[in-house]
Design brief:
Blueprint: E1 5-10, E2 15-20, E3 38-39, E4 42-45, E5 54-57, H1 61-70, E6 72-73, E7 78-79, H2 85-102, E8 107-111, E9 125-127, H3 131-138, E10 156-161, E11 165-172, E12 175-182, H4 186-198, E13 203-207, E14 211-217, E15 226-233, E16 239-246, H5 247-263, H6 276-289, H7 292-298
Parallel strand pairs: 2-8
Antiparallel strand pairs: 1-2, 3-4, 4-5, 6-7, 8-9, 10-11, 11-12, 13-14, 14-15, 15-16
Helix pairs in contact: 2-3, 4-5, 5-6, 5-7
């Protein structure tokens, strides 16, 4: 499967963009000929020096491109006369909107007709919140019934408890990122998650040793409560991991994954269970993370503040 997206750095402004422009050839990125590929239904960039990393799965986009490839004679740069460009572009714009909803906002997204398209259906389009008007214009003319996709990333968590920290890996599709989370940071993580619950705008940031965790509410479309989660190094413009997620699912997934790993093994040696200060030491990370407010929020119950008995 060929490359579907092209990422270029414009000099001197360093503005990064993605161009959806299907072709049979691999598309190159910048003067170094670096390439960002889309295999199957996945489009991703895992090179931080090209821009924030992301991984997006858009079901059906490979089949969409394949229909165009099968109908095209690339040697003659012609497409079968019966090819339905209007329906194809309608679907393409729906896919582009789904990609734009998930991609980091520092990218500009373009949708560009292939070289072989002489139908005049549309010219190059910048994809943003205004693309719905163009989609609505093409919808009644399209023969294939598609609808704008509304996607979200599902983050998987892999954790391992060590002597003084938890190694945590965030993963979306083929994109993974690992950071150590010191036990000293757990109270800060709890406060960060509570800030996410309370905040409706702005960015919630948690500073770690070497990395920052960020969350910004960013609801697009019909989702009730969405946001963007990203990890950056402790200086600007170096995002290492980015995801567009359901806010409650994100808080629930991270909190329960941490609580499970911190609690795992606490009763492993029940016959020789420690007491006194030794017991307090092994339970301290678990107790510092635990929050009644977070647990009532992720359980869809009325939120109960920490320290207040319901």
């Amino acid at each position: 499967m060929k490359c579907l997206c092209e990422i270029k750095m414009l000099i001197p402004m360093k503005k990064t963009y993605i161009r959806i422009s299907p072709d049979i050839d691999v598309l190159c990125i910048n003067s170094d000929s670096c390439c960002a590929s889309a295999y199957g239904d996945e489009i991703y960039n895992d090179s931080p020096w090209l821009g924030p990393r992301f991984s997006i799965v858009v079901p059906g986009i490979e089949e969409w491109v394949k229909r165009y490839e099968d109908a095209t004679d690339f040697a003659e740069t012609t497409t079968e006369p019966s090819f339905d460009w209007i329906s194809w572009h309608y679907e393409g714009l729906c896919f582009a909107k789904a990609i734009w909803e998930q991609m980091p906002r520092c990218y500009t997204l373009y949708y560009e007709p292939p070289f072989e398209d002489h139908s005049g259906t549309l010219d190059e389009v910048i994809i943003d919140e205004h693309v719905d008007s163009l989609i609505d214009r093409l919808r009644p003319l399209a023969k294939r019934t598609a609808s704008p996709l509304s996607r979200k990333d599902n983050i998987e968590y892999k954790l391992e408890r060590k002597d003084c920290c938890i190694e945590i890996t965030f993963r979306i599709n083929n994109l993974g990122f690992n950071i150590p989370l010191s036990f000293r940071c757990l109270t800060g993580i709890t406060q960060w998650l509570k800030d996410i619950i309370d905040a409706k705008d702005g960015v919630c940031t948690m500073q770690l040793s070497g990395y920052d965790l960020h969350y910004a509410h960013q609801t697009i479309g019909s989702h009730p409560e969405m946001g963007r989660f990203w990890i950056s190094k402790n200086y600007p413009h170096n995002d290492e991991f980015c995801a567009y997620v359901d806010t409650k699912e994100f808080v629930r997934g991270l909190y329960l994954s941490l609580m499970t790993e911190l609690g795992f093994g606490l009763y492993e040696n029940i016959d020789n269970y420690p007491g006194g200060e030794e017991r307090n030491v092994i339970w301290k990370p678990y107790n510092e993370l635990k929050s009644c407010k977070i647990e009532t929020y992720i359980s869809d119950n009325e939120i109960c503040e920490d320290g207040i008995q319901s």
